[in-house]
Design a protein that fits this description.
Length: 389
């Protein structure tokens, strides 16, 4: 187990905490209008956070996975939609960085990769490019199984055809980093489709229950051209990541840990009478509910932080189970804590534009995130250790 709270990480989390109140103040409108939080991104860009997981030698802040997790948790405390979309962007910069560094590549693949990721990072730092990760197709839940999107090799790159659902940042990202297959080859390809390429079509409405600022509409690729240099992992690299660096799939959970914290913040204000109501903290029933909420949050955060102390390549079966357990716990504790808070804070907390009402809806979305949705992960936890691992 390594120490997770280094002074550098504390510093970066403190910067987010400073921006937090402005993000929280905008969150109501982001939710009401199902609008992307552009202003929050302008602030993040200004403070260098688009390059959080880009090495300092390439102009970034040099953060690693654990740094990202702690920053994401703090972001989720102030605006869930910002935190969740920041995941898609940052996880891409980290996948080609820290994670790819741990994967096996031939010398030639490594040299090509170095060139391509340098350009990806340059685009983020110098031009403020935003990256998305539309992997879901609504067809199969596996990390590497069953991508229907097809890339046909052509001169200078690929022509991509397929459909991705719930593509967060659909109208905002500069690059849609998709998973797809080439006919006759069972290795997953990881291609960055330029948002302005011919044949990139955004379709469908976006009017969901929660996480309404994520702009997660459907993306259709109709023979969209992807330059060869936008293949951001060598063929087979994504498959290798899925088995050797599975912590990649936990990157969404930290948002929901932050949402738990936001619910606790709201409830503290309510019980202390700081939210416009009279003080209620002297009532035993309220104290019991508050204790239940804290217990649930402490369990979730403790398990997540334990996992963060173990993050790295080639986890043991025990560590992998812990990552599943931490994921299920964060994704299910968020709605549990929000639900308890509604009981504790009473009916007025349900009246829009109540912050808790929004958090309650945002919190419920976590369990559905594939490929490590709660159902998929519970199914794995339910089998692990009982059969041959
Ligand atoms: C706000 C939001 C933002 C999102 N952003 C992105 C994004 O940027 N990129 C991206 O790739 N995806 C994104 N997603 C999609 C998400 O990861 C899931 O793919 C999507 O929610 C799946 O939709 P579904 O539950 O209808 O799918 P289905 O696959 O139909 O699943 C239905 C239910 O069955 C469960 N299930 C499915 N297969 C199995 C199985 N084999 N074993 C056990 N249980 C199973 C699922 O967990 C789910 O509960 C986002 C989703 C939301 C809500």
């Amino acid at each position: 187990m390594s120490e997770i709270w280094t002074s550098r990480r504390r510093e970066l989390v403190a910067s987010i905490a400073q921006m937090g109140p402005a993000f929280a103040a905008r969150a109501g409108e982001v939710d009401r209008e199902a609008a992307f939080p552009h202003e929050n991104y302008a602030d993040l860009r200004e403070a260098g956070f688009l390059g959080l997981c880009i090495p300092e030698s390439h102009g970034g802040l040099g953060g690693d996975f654990v740094t990202y997790a702690l920053v994401s948790e703090e972001l989720g405390r102030h605006c869930g939609s910002t935190a969740l979309t920041f995941n898609m962007h940052t996880a891409t910069t980290m996948l080609v960085g820290q994670i790819a560094d741990d994967l096996d590549m031939t010398d030639e693949e490594r040299a090509v990769h170095e060139e391509r990721r340098s350009e990806l990072w340059r685009g983020v730092i110098a031009e403020g490019r935003l990256h998305a990760q539309p992997f879901s197709e609504g067809l199969a839940p596996g990390e590497t199984a069953g991508f229907a999107a097809r890339a046909v090799p052509v001169d200078g790159g690929y022509l991509l055809t397929g459909r991705k659902v719930f593509a967060s940042l659909s109208e905002v990202a500069d690059l849609h980093n998709v998973t797809c297959m080439v006919e006759g080859d069972d290795r997953v390809r990881f291609l960055g489709v330029p948002a302005d390429a011919d044949g990139v079509i955004i379709e469908g409405d976006w009017d969901p229950l929660g996480m309404r600022g994520t702009n997660s509409r459907n993306l259709v690729f109709d023979g969209a051209f992807v330059p060869a240099e936008n293949e951001f992992l060598p063929p087979g690299g994504f498959d290798q990541m899925a088995t050797r660096w599975p912590y990649f799939y936990t990157t969404l959970t930290f948002t929901y840990l932050g949402i738990q914290r936001a619910v606790l913040d709201y409830t503290t204000d309510y019980l202390r009478g700081e939210g416009g109501t009279s003080e209620r903290r002297d009532m035993p029933q309220k104290q019991h509910g508050w204790a239940q909420m804290r217990l649930a949050w402490e369990r979730s955060q403790a398990l997540t932080y334990r996992m963060l102390g173990e993050v790295g390549v080639d986890p043991s079966p025990e560590q992998l189970r812990r990552a599943w357990a931490a994921t299920v716990t964060a994704m299910e504790t968020a709605p549990e804590v929000a639900s308890l808070a509604v009981r504790v804070c009473g009916g007025r907390s349900l009246l829009r534009p109540s912050v808790l009402e929004r958090l309650y809806r945002d919190a419920r979305c976590g369990a559905t995130m594939l490929p490590w949705s709660v159902e998929v992960t519970m199914e794995r936890l339910g089998r692990a250790g009982l059969y041959d691992d």
